[in-house]
Amino acid sequence: MSWVLLVLAGLLEIGWAIGIKLSEGFSRPIPSILTILAMVLSMFLLGVSVKELPIGTAYAIWVGIGTFGAGILGILIFHEPVSPLRVASLAFIVVGIVGMKLSSG
Predict the structure, then answer these.
(1) CA–CA gap between residue 61 and residue 36 (Å, rounded)
(2) CA gap 79, 2 in Å, rounded
(3) Which residue from 85, 87, 84 is spatially nearest to 68, judged by alpha carbons?
(4) pLDDT (tens digit per residue) in 34-58
(5) What is the 3-state secondary structure (H, E, C) of 21-69?
(6) Cα–Cα distance between 92 and 78 in angstroms, integer?
(7) Which of 4, 39, 59, 70 gets the most CB atoms within 10 Å of its CB?
(8) pTM of this prediction?
(9) How far apart are CA 99 and CA 83, in angstroms?
(10) How many CA atoms lie within 13 A of 49 on its CB side?
């Protein structure tokens, strides 16, 4: 169950990262409120998951999910530049996430 909570925490991290952009510096009330809720819930779920998971593994996976998701959504939603190096870097993040999971048993 801790792994499921960790993945949900990572998905919420994607949500709040995108929410920061959509809130326009926390100047838009609804996106700002949703972003703060996603932040709090993401941190809460991370905290619950590290009761059973190693902190180094959990934190790396949480950040990796958030980084990968924000990178992909930045490209898809905000039309951020796509380059071979950017795509390769996102792929390396996925490799790192999988490697951390496999190495933790």
Answers:
(1) 21
(2) 34
(3) 87
(4) 999 999 999 999 999 999 999 999 9
(5) HHCCCCCCHHHHHHHHHHHHHHHHHHHHHCCCCCHHHHHHHHHHHHHHH
(6) 22
(7) 70
(8) 0.92
(9) 24
(10) 25
As given in the structure block, the two tokens for residue 89 are 């870097």
In angstroms, the Cα distances linking 53 to 8, 20, 21, 105 are: 15, 28, 31, 10
* Token pair for 11: 């998905």
DSSP 3-state of 15: helix
CA 16 to chain centre: 8
- One digit per residue, the tens of pLDDT, for the chain of length 105 reads 999 999 999 999 999 999 999 999 999 999 999 999 999 999 999 999 999 999 999 999 999 999 999 999 999 999 999 999 999 999 999 999 999 999 986
Instruction: Give me the residue spans of the domains in the chain.
Output: 2-104
